Amino acid sequence: MTSSNQYDAIVIGAGHNGLIAAAYLARAGKKVCILERREIVGGAAMTEEIFPGYRFTEFSYVVSLLRPEIIRDLELPRHGLKILPLPSTVTPMDNGDYLAAWDDHDLTRQELYRHSPKDAEASDEYGRVMARAAKAIKPVIGLVPPDPSSMSPRDLMGLLKLGKYAKSLSEKDLYRIAKLVTQSSADLLDEWFEFDPLKGTKSASGIIGTFLGPRSPGTAYVLLHHYMGEIDGAFRAWGFAKNGTGGVSAAIARSAAALGVEIRTNASVQQVIVQGGRAAGVALENGDELRAKVVMSAADP
User: Fold this and answer.
1) What is the C-alpha separation between 231 and 206, in angstroms, rounded?
2) What is the rounded CA–CA span in Å between residue 66 and residue 252?
3) What is the DSSP letter of 77?
4) In whole angstroms, how far apart are CA 190 and each of 184, 193, 197, 217?
5) Degrees (nearest 5) of the Cα angle 276, 295, 6?
6) What one-character-per-residue DSSP string does 110-143 give?
7) pLDDT category, 234, cuts 50, 70, 90?
8) Contact criterion met (CB below 8 Å) for 290 and 2
9) Is 31 a residue whose pLDDT tops 90?
10) Taking the CA of residue 109 as centre, how many other CA atoms within 13 Å lie in the half-sphere pointing to its CB?
11) Whole-angstrom Cα distance, residue 64 to residue 70?
12) Which one of 10, 167, 214, 229 is most buried, counting C-beta atoms within 10 A?
């Protein structure tokens, strides 16, 4: 085993999550290798030439929930990340009409009023309520979940921090969050609106990536989660990455490489090497063995 095959950490899978983990480890001064079985990095955030001359974003499609602190820490704009704001959306209807939403509040309100004056009146208050709930729950997203059964100092401090956060919320905010976490997106929207195309459009944000339906419990929180979108400090903003979502992964990969991460493609992992009940490295399908103190998986095991 040569020193070139010894690492502080090995990350299996070069999707955007794996790339970010590797970049942060390298930023902390660790020697890191990330392994990807395909010839390109990106995982589900990739852009490929499906037809000659045409490149397509294949899976993930818009950018908003990529945390701004990650963009800053990894200096992603310097490495090519450019997000183009999403200005409008349109929902076609069975009768040949449509429901549009714009980046102009008054135009969107007029469009909604055309279909339902009641929903146009309710829309602003709904947006304010959801935005308040999103801002209330947003600080929890970045916390490492503490183990309530553990007595370790880290978990106890985590529980204390979580308790202080909960205490800082009003009773109304706590009730709203508890309701959103357990409610379905369809039930939530039924409380606010009457126009089915509007409810259908909004409920789509409650089922993205869940394999659930809009009446499944908990999807109201997924809808709320998408209110946390942010681009350049603009809350609830969404956009498209230049060069597709593969452009996001490419920028993260360039940042990781600049921090010293070794990125190996066409490097399929055959098995994780375990010694003394702990992961100690990986064996690749080409016969290479790599060793590390930590082995992380960002891929389907």
Assistant:
1) 20
2) 11
3) G
4) 10, 6, 12, 14
5) 85
6) HHHHHH-HHHHHHHHHHHHHHHHHHHHHHHHHTS
7) low
8) no
9) yes
10) 10
11) 12
12) 10
